[in-house]
Automatic annotation (TrEMBL):
Segments forming a coiled coil: 108-135
Pfam families recorded: ATP_bind_3
Official protein name in the record: tRNA-cytidine(32) 2-sulfurtransferase
Keyword annotations: Coiled coil, Transferase
GO molecular function: transferase activity
Gene giving rise to this polypeptide: ttcA_38
Assigned EC number: 2.8.1.-
Annotated TM spans: none
Domain tRNA(Ile)-lysidine/2-thiocytidine synthase N-terminal: 16-85
């Protein structure tokens, strides 16, 4: 068996979770998977991709996975985590915390802290990032070769 060369355990775990969700959905006859990503996740993902990958990229609110025939939706992507937490508390919904052993040392955690710090100066930061994602056009990107790539 070939050993995988993942950059971080987070990448491997995310790929495994996606596979398990897709397989379970197919077994149950479900054609749609609803994920709980929120506006904070989107902002953090954009910044992580910029900081660590050098690209302006994020997950989509809605996508069709052609290999599995399953649609993925993210109904909370325009709602801030704080509002979701308040509503869950108001409704006395159980909240399951992450059991990830790397969570306290993850790039996502440090990016979350950067976002919180930036929001003190730019309260609309997450909304601005979401707005940029909605209005990104291919013709606005820089031509290849401009940065001595």
């Amino acid at each position: 068996m070939k050993e995988r060369d993942e950059r971080s355990p987070c990448s491997l775990c995310a790929n495994m979770r996606r596979g398990i969700l897709a397989n379970s959905s197919k077994e149950l006859g479900c054609g749609v998977i609803a994920l709980g990503h929120h506006k904070d996740d989107a902002a953090e993902t954009v910044l992580m991709n910029l900081f660590y990958g050098g690209r302006f990229k994020c997950f989509h609110p809605h996508l069709y996975m052609s290999r599995t025939g399953i649609r993925v939706i993210r109904p909370f992507v325009y709602v801030e985590e704080r509002r979701i937490r308040l509503e869950a508390e108001r409704l006395a919904l159980p909240v399951i915390s992450s059991c990830c052993p790397y969570g306290d040392k993850s790039k996502r955690k440090s990016t979350k802290e950067i976002v919180a710090s930036l929001e003190k100066e730019i309260p609309e930061l997450k909304s601005n990032i979401a707005h940029a994602l909605r209005h990104l056009r291919e013709n606005e990107s820089w031509p290849k070769g401009m940065l001595n790539e």
